[in-house]
Amino acid sequence: MATLSHEAFRRCVAGFGGCDEYFTEMINAGSLLNMGPWEKFYMMDGPDPGKIVWQLTGNNPEKMGDAAKILASLSGIGVDLNMGCSAPQIAGTGAGISWMTKDWGETERMVRLVKKSLQENKGTDGKEKRLSVKMRLGDEKFTEERLFDFCSMLVDCGVQMLTLHPRTKKEKYRERARWNFVDDLTKRFPDIPIILNGDIKDFSSYSSAVEAAPDCAGVMVARMAAQKPWIFKEIRMEEGDSFDVDMEKTALDFIDDVEECQPEEFWKTRLRRFFAYYCLNFSFAHYFQSQMLNASDNEDSRKRVREYFEKCPDDRIKTVRR
Q: What is the per-residue pLDDT across 181-191, written as a single tens digit (0 to 9) for each?
């Protein structure tokens, strides 16, 4: 969710009733400690500061621990350690899923340093931040027992919640997420909340996931929330209910919020990232997507949104039903 789960995007989701917890973009430990010009935007906690989870990434145990001190003093629920990102630019530096594949002694040291920082530095509400980890199954040589051993190490270090994206390092989204491993984790660690992540696209897939892992403590939705910011409302509504989405207004409001919540240098990349997913909702998805990805600036983006709905007025209102 890099370049996606910033405050402007969270506002979009919140406009449809929101979700229980908002995980931020990955915050790089080294960059946070240097307090560069962009870090204040990664540390924005709207629209609901009490629901924020700060997602921390990096490759150095000491820097991770020191960065956690900063995040511990902010608002929100907790700090989440990213041990699942397999993107080469992240994993190749020793961050992300590399914490699962490198020597576990180094990983254990990092987790203990972060935990210590959270214990010694309270948030704005005076409470200790929760420590959680998001991870994958491991590399291609993973075994269920090795996964359990890794999770046991995390829990022994003070991790209080685990989120599993049940794919290996190299598995892409063509392969189906193996939700059964989430169910296995809930049985092995009954006292730790286990969150299911992967392939949640609508109420039907949500129901299938929960059926496969009935004891999971929750479900995390990532990229599909960019395509359908109303997905949490869709999952929660009762059978037979429906609601309308003004697709044009949602798009234009998002552009406004990006201008308010992001530095000008980020506007183009944030809009491109969002509209790459959001445009998939429409009758002429590829055309609309190409239009938005090629917009020169925000005003051009607004112009292209309005022009699309002038040409395709039937796409303006989307009715979501259960």
A: 999 999 999 99
Q: What is the mean pLDDT of residues 230-238?
A: 96
pLDDT at residue 298 greater than cutoff 80 = yes
| Mean pLDDT of all residues in 48-74 | 97
Q: What is the mean pLDDT of the chain?
A: 95
Name the residue among 99, 115, 114, 116 with its Cα closest to residue 64: 114
Cβ neighbours for 65, distance < 8 A, ≥ 6 positions apart? 110, 113, 114, 116, 117
The pLDDT tens digits for 96-131 are 999 999 999 999 999 999 999 999 998 777 889 999
User: At residue 1, does pLDDT exceed 90?
Assistant: no
Smallest CA-to-CA distance from 117 within 153, 73, 77, 81 is with 73
Model-wide pTM > 0.90: yes
Contact 259, 298 (CB under 8 A): yes
Burial class of 120 by CB neighbour count within 10 A (0 to 12, 13 to 18, 19+):
exposed
What does the alpha-carbon distance between residue 54 and residue 83 come to, in Å, rounded to a whole number? 14
